Amino acid sequence: MTAPAPSEKALVPFVSVENMMRLVHHIGLETLLCELTDVIEADFRRWALFDKTPRVASHSREGVIELMPTSDGEIYSFKYVNGHPKNMAHGLQTVTAFGLLAEVSTGYPVLLTEMTLLTALRTAATSAMAARHLAPEGSTTMAMIGNGAQAEFQAIAMKAVLGITTVRLFDIDRRASEKTKRNLEGRGLDVVICDNAQAAIEGAQIITTCTADKQYATILTDNMVGAGVHINAIGGDCPGKTELHPDILRRASTFVEYPPQTRIEGEIQQMEPDYPVTELWQVVNGEATGRSGQTQITLFDSVGFAIEDFSALRFVRERIRGTKLFQEIDLIADPDDPRDLFGMLQRSLD
Ligand code: NAD
Question: Which of 30, 102, 110, 257 has its CA 20 to 30 A from that of 71?
Fold first, then answer.
């Protein structure tokens, strides 16, 4: 998008929750997840171009509020996102978000959008992208531990991108697993509710942990994890909030998004500062090896990185073009004479 002419009003496209839902239905969820996986992968390939910084986090006893900025030199993006594990008990989402894209050349925003749904979509697409490079070939079965807001998106992305056929669910609250099973009905997946995490991972080549608890939790212990599996650990994404016993990390080959952020927030916060990790973008690029053997345990220590949000925002900006799935909002004060901001205010009384 080029800079607006001086007399044009600089209206900013805004995608509401309602319109984001319409966009997902318009494209089709599985198609969208496949396309988004490819868009994220394309941005991982040009990783070196991006401004990178660990997200700016404001922690409290109840949770965290974070800002996640990045830029590829042409487009800038940020996401506002929270993580409040206790919210669910009060009928609120654990994770909510909105985000913005702006042109680097003018600093003018070019998209404002809800990102609660978009975060679930991009997190699922990122998991699928990582699994595409790390999971055992021909994986058919996934264990999904933690059956909250992210769960169905994770399962459907693994089906759409990797072709898994079975999902084994476990949550400490059985109602969450029942909800997930209900939501996945008719989507071409065999869904099995299990009584504990051990039972859920039986026969699974891909194990996704996606729980929310602000503590060092042990969703998986070392003895539960067999050789050759791929673990996709999503829920440990904040200081003091992890899901895996450290002994699993001692056996696994660990892949991360951006080490300076993951060492603060990921499963590896439990390990020594020089614990070896591979950056996922290097695997995507062919600069590092992903899965190297049948018995290797691969771990994607996912925390969520700004470049994934950038990709998701870029995708939405592209896909709303020519549709009615956005409103134009008057977000930027843009007087005809750029130096006459006061005059614009004054004239608004007339
Ligand atoms: P949610 O609150 O909707 O769901 C979490 C589920 O985990 C709940 O159903 C809860 O009952 C279950 N749970 C808690 N402790 C458990 C345990 N010990 N064993 C089994 N189940 C357990 O949260 P959500 O939106 O689905 O998010 C899940 C996690 O993923 C959160 O921790 C969130 O911060 C994280 N997250 C990470 C990323 C990323 O990019 N890595 C993105 C989004 C969310």
Answer: 30
